[in-house]
Specification:
binds fe (ii) ion; single chain; Jelly Rolls; two-stranded antiparallel sheet; alpha+beta; eleven-stranded antiparallel sheet
Length: about 240
C-alpha cells in the first residue's frame, strides 16, 4: 500500500473538498447556527487515503498510546436519590501536546503531526464554523477498542479564559472492519435524545462544545474483539 498523503486537503473526497472550499451550501457556516451543535459528514475522507491511514496507525501508533481508565466510583450513596456519576471513560490516547514525548515523536515520524497541523485542516474547521479560528490548535489521537466508551461529560473548561466562550472539535474516524458500531449520544433540549453513528471509515464529526454527550461502548463483530478499533484523529480549535 502506498504512503498516505500528509496534507489534510489531499485526504478529502470530492464532497469533503466542497466543504473545504466553501462550495457546499448546506454545510458552509452551519455551526454558526445556535441550534446546530453536532454534525457528521460521512465519506468526507476518500476511501483510499482512509484505508492507508488506518493501516499506518494500526502498524505504527498503537505502542505509543497510553491507556485511560476512569471507572465508576464504587461508593454507595447514603440515600436512594443521591446517586452521582463522575466522569467515566475507557480508551487509549496520545495527547500530542509535548514535543519530547514518545507519542509525539512517533506521530511526527509517521506524518500524523504534519497531517493534523495542515493549514487545510483549520480551513475545513473554519468553513463549518462560519467564523475565524485561531492559527494554533490542539491535536490528539485516540483509539477505542472493544467495549471502550466515554461516559456523559460536557468538555467544559470554564476556568480557561480562551475556551469560556466555547470551542470547536473536529474528529476524523478511521474504523477497522471488525467493528459493528459505536454511537455518539448528545443532549438536545435537556435530554440525551440525539444519536449519530461514529464507526465510519473516513467520516468527520464536528462538535460545538461544551455540550453534554457520551460515546457508547464500541461493539465488535462476533469473534473479532481483538481487531475491533476506532481511531480518532482530533483537532480542537478556539475562536479568533
Ligand atoms: Fe467529549
Amino acid at each position: 500500500m502506498s504512503a498516505p498523503p500528509r496534507d489534510f486537503a489531499d485526504l478529502l473526497s470530492p464532497a469533503g473538498r466542497r466543504v473545504l472550499e466553501g462550495r457546499d451550501r448546506t454545510l458552509t457556516g452551519i455551526l454558526a447556527d445556535p441550534d446546530q451543535r453536532v454534525l457528521s459528514i460521512d465519506g468526507a475522507i476518500a476511501a483510499e487515503p482512509a484505508r492507508a491511514w488506518l493501516a499506518r496507525l494500526e502498524a505504527e501508533m498503537r505502542p505509543a498510546l497510553v491507556p485511560v481508565s476512569h471507572p465508576i466510583e464504587a461508593r454507595r450513596p447514603r440515600r436512594a436519590t443521591a446517586e452521582r456519576l463522575g466522569k467515566t471513560m475507557r480508551f487509549a490516547t496520545a495527547l500530542l501536546a509535548r514535543r519530547d514525548s514518545k507519542s509525539y515523536r512517533r506521530a511526527q515520524r509517521i506524518g500524523l503531526v504534519r497531517l493534523l497541523r495542515s493549514d487545510s485542516f483549520r480551513e475545513f474547521a473554519q468553513a463549518l464554523a462560519g467564523r475565524r479560528l485561531r492559527p494554533a490548535w490542539g491535536i490528539q489521537v485516540s483509539c477505542y477498542g472493544a467495549g471502550d466508551y466515554a461516559g456523559p461529560h460536557t468538555d467544559d473548561f470554564p476556568d480557561l479564559p480562551a475556551a469560556r466562550a466555547g470551542y470547536l472539535d473536529i474528529h476524523i474516524s478511521l474504523t477497522t472492519p471488525a467493528v459493528a458500531g459505536q454511537s455518539l449520544v448528545y443532549e438536545s433540549g435537556g435530554h440525551f435524545c440525539q444519536q449519530i453513528e461514529l464507526a465510519t471509515l473516513g467520516g468527520i464529526t464536528a462538535y460545538r462544545l461544551p455540550l453534554w454527550h457520551y460515546t457508547t461502548p464500541l461493539q465488535a463483530r462476533p469473534g473479532q474483539e481483538q481487531a475491533a478499533r476506532r481511531w480518532l484523529l482530533l483537532g480542537t480549535f478556539l475562536y479568533a
